[in-house]
Specification:
The structure is a single chain. This protein has 230 residues and is of the alpha+beta class. The protein folds into two domains: 94 residues, no CATH class; 117 residues, Cytidine Deaminase, domain 2 (3-Layer(aba) Sandwich). It is built from ten helices and five strands. A five-stranded mixed β-sheet has the order 2-1-3-4-5, sandwiched between helices. A hairpin with a 4-residue loop joins strand 4 and strand 5. The longest helix is centred in the middle third of the chain and has 19 residues. It is elongated. The N and C termini lie far apart (55 Å). The model has no long low-confidence stretch (mean pLDDT 83).
Length: 230
Amino acid sequence: MPAEDRPRERLLRLGPQALSDTELLAIVLNTGVRGCSVIELADQILRNCEGEDPDSRLVRLLQLTEADIRLAIPGIGPAKLCQVIAALHLGQRAKAAPRPRVYELSNPKAVYEYLAPRVSQLEQEQFMVILLNAKNHVLDVESIVSKGTQTSTLVHPREIFKPAIRRSAHAIILAHNHPSGDPTPSREDREITRRLIEAGKLIGIEVLDHLVIGDGRYVSFRERKLADWS
């Protein structure tokens, strides 16, 4: 079989949705048996599970025993059967698992409430970057991009945008804390915000806001119009 037509290569190139049940099962099996290629083996196993309703063959596959398969397909042993059953049960568990909570940060207050527990006990300024998808859902938080001194934090645009580029973020929100409790932005805060907004425009990753978090309070650069967002 040409390399580009093999199930594993097709999955990597096209995604699992483009593969048939036979091809997906062939990837799980990994190898065939004597006189039977892995594709042929996968097809035989699925045909053995069809019964009167072909649509139920994956469900019936979960119910097969080693004896069932060995009688129908000589040469297949418990190792391959275990591979198949384990893969199917993992899929079942993944489907039944609770979905992770989706955080939608659509306003400065929501951002503050999301970050406040993370920074409430910090004794030094720490810069954070929230990575967002196109729906403003949180992809990840780089909670410590760089640590500063007790009075200031130093950040560089490349450290800010590196994780955003890696995760293909649509936009980012910046935040850092003021351990003094006073969230009033400093001159340095204004300057780094300006630089990062400009860098985001060049890269194509929008900086939506910059929050300075104090003791039970925050200042949003966008809300206060402290930077040029045009």
